[in-house]
Amino acid sequence: MKKTISFSIFSACLIIIFVNAAAAGDTQGTTKGWKAGVARVVITPQEPIWMAGYGSRDHVSEGTLHDLWVRH
Question: Residue ranges of the domains in the chain?
């Protein structure tokens, strides 16, 4: 039963991908279809801050070893 459901979902995903790929191929110079992108941004604070989770600390952060990044 699980194999049948998994195969059905897999088949439906393949059909959707192929239909969209065929539709994107028929655009003749236009930019219809799916677009994807990735980004990476530094989110390291520039000034010293109090750090959550360090209850015994009595002063702000003292620097960084590595930048903090976010990907979206």
Answer: 2-71
